[in-house]
Design a protein that fits this description.
By secondary structure, the chain is an alpha/beta fold. The chain contains 13 helices and eight strands. The chain folds into two domains: 109 residues, no CATH class; 162 residues, Nucleotidyltransferase, domain 5 (2-Layer Sandwich), CATH 3.30.420.10. Helix content is 48%, strand content 16%. Helix 11 links the parallel strand 7 and strand 8.
Amino acid sequence: MTTFFMLGAQEKLKGNKIIELNKLINWSRCMNHLKKIHKQDESLMGGQVAYDRLKMFKAILLQQWHSLSDMELVEALKERISFMAFTGFDLADEIPDASTFCRFRNKLIERNLDERLFREINSQIEKIGLKLEKAQCAIVDATIVESCNRPRRTTLIENDREEEEIKIEQSESKDSDARWLKKGNRFFFGYKSFATVDEDGFYEKIHTTPANVSEVNQFEETIRGSKAKRVLADKGYASQKNREIAKKNEIKDGIMHKAQKNKPLTSREKLINKLISKKRYVVERTFGTLKRQFRFSRASYAGVRKVQAQITFKAICANLLKAVNRAIEWKYEYSCA
């Protein structure tokens, strides 16, 4: 960015949380993961010079932070100073078009770079002390994400009077990975995202399945790789198999107890459930932040892999927001001391 533009932007955006992230995170380390994402990086055949990979990635984060379409992202990069200052694009640059951002995001997904960048940013937050490196508890839960394509069943009836036959043609939803789920009195069509968070509410792991997948069968995948000493989970994960999985992974069992037919909960089990619920509310709060602040009740893309990538980018944004809020609090406490 030009020196003149930078000086003006820094003064106007002083205290802006997104701009504070440029000071908090070492973005050059993210750049290391973005090597060879373009064809020009892998061959010597030449061609048009690609857009800066780090600028593009930071633009994708802003897109998920503000829940923008590709077209809206392009317009914001042309008009909003905070977007220019954070990404590094300025008025003198040629802003990529919407299809370029779409292709870049798809490249990130194809190379599983969303997961690698998620781990990289979490690692940096840990090293500067804003996130616990070895959390005591791993809190697991799932949330429903509705599909971007509503299910459609279009029935076309053609009556050929001569042959006296009725022809029926049906078309299903374009989102072939999404499935139906009934929760309470409501029906949902989409996906179920499983997350592990620490006791401070930082996302540690995420994976996504069609909505009809049972939670009880996803426990092992959800806690895989966790370094926590205890796992906390609601009644949806209650089974003898899952308790054995926790024991096998040397994680203390914090799964709530579930009453069964002709076998009500004992007083002790009710007390344990109450103690667990007092701590596991953190995961509900993080999902609430994801859906309210980052507007993620409905997916923007079709297919389980793309929905997985979108919630991963949203989780990066949520972790960054929590980290910058904590850094601002520490700075304020230091100034008042």
